[in-house]
Amino acid sequence: MDRQTKKRMIIMLASLAVLFGCVIAYKVFVSLMIKHYIESLKSPTFTVSTTQVNYQLWQPRLVAAGSLRAIRGVNVTAQLAGMVTHIYFKPGQDVEENAVLVQLNADDDVAALHALEASAQLAKITYDRDSAQYKVRAISKATLDTDTQNLKNFTAQVAQQAAIVLKKTIRAPFAGRLGICNINPGQYLNPGDTVSMLQTLDPIYVDFYVPQQSLADLKLGLPVSLTTETFPDRTFTGSITTINPGVDVSTRNVEVEATIPNPKHELAPGMFVAVTVAISEPKNYLTLPQTAVTFNPYGALVYIVNKTGEDKKGPILTATQSFVTTGESRGDQVVILQGLKKDQTVVTSGQLKLKNGSHVAINNTIQPPNNPAPKLPDNH
To answer: Which of 57-61, 143-147, 248-252 has the highest mean pLDDT?
Structure first.
């Protein structure tokens, strides 16, 4: 073989080696790309926050809206017409029962009373004299009967006129606190005109309604607590004193009355209040933050986090859907009646991007609110 042929053979072999090298490199590149693509098809890992399912002591209760009402409350009015001569009270004053509030002009009535008293006294003298004469048969029985009826007639007229004079003095029918004075000295009052409002404030009633299905849970003496926007940080307590024996046919609700001590007169009739009735002993319930439950038309579900394996980075955590039955909710919490067990780990936020079997990573740096009785922010 001459030198030129040998040279051509070497060039050919080198070309074949380069060609086979390119083919092998292409195959390796394709294999790596396929492997990368397959790895990219794996489920991504989502970051979520979690909590453990646990028991919490809850007091079974009924919640309703109510209104405060005075145990005794009236508008003090004039019974008879007359002109105001004296006003003996100050607006907002606390008064005792039978305290004099207003005096109307009663001069004519007092004069008429004195005239009737004089006539009654004369009738009494006549009756006594004729009674003595009748005993000795000096007068007839008919004359004595006439004297008796005259005495009774004048005595009754005196009592009637005395009642009229008494009604010209307006008094407090019971102890309580007066309101705004609606009259002035020299003003002429007609029967029924309002002098002032009078309310007994301690204790005070709260009236509220509960559904008829709750009637079996109610009984006299159950503790009641109420709150009002007037005192947002205060809770007032009392007990049920009356349950209406009938159900309202239009609403199927039962009216309930509770009595609340009010020694400082902080609560006023007409206030709107939120009423809570403790209906039985406290019970343990499984609870979760409401953000952990996803409510759908086909049911409520949560995501339970389970360890399904380990890799170089640590444990592999998987979120699994579980349907639950929820109960009462309070504040940020909700009762779980069925579907979960104590100490299970449940996703509380980030579940909107999850599906059944998603891989998750836990980050509990920020937790959603989980307070059964949160306080409203003060906007003032």
So the answer is: 248-252
Q: Which of 127, 46, 130 is nearest to 317 (CA)?
A: 46
- The percent of residues above 90 in pLDDT, for the chain, comes to 30
How far is the C-alpha of 63 from the C-alpha of 329, rounded, in Å? 12
Return the ∠ at Cα 178 (arms to 86 and 242), rounded to 5°.
Answer: 145
Q: Sheet containing 82-87: which strands, arranged edge to edge?
A: 169-171, 100-104, 82-87, 188-189
Q: How many CB atoms lie within 10 A of CB 164?
A: 16
Nearest CA to 108 among 161, 49, 62? 161
* pTM of this structure: 0.65
Nearest to 203 by CA among 278, 256, 277, 258: 258
Containing 16, the helix (H) or strand (E) segment is: helix 3-40
Which residue, chain included where needed, has tokens 């309101």? Answer: 179
- Looking up tokens 């859907």 gives 321
Residues 276-321: tens digit of each pLDDT = 888 877 788 888 888 889 888 888 899 999 888 777 777 888 888 8
Mean pLDDT of 16-31: 82
Q: What is the rounded CA–CA span in Å between residue 64 and residue 54?
A: 28
**How many alpha carbons lie under 13 Å from residue 217 in its C-beta half-sphere?**
15
Dihedral angle computed from the Cα positions of residues 326, 328, 334 and 336, in that order, rounded to the nearest 10 degrees = -40
d(CA 322, CA 344) in angstroms, rounded, equals 12
Q: What is the mean pLDDT of the chain?
A: 86
Core vs surface per residue 115-128: b (16+ CB within 10 A) or e:
ebbebbeebeeebe
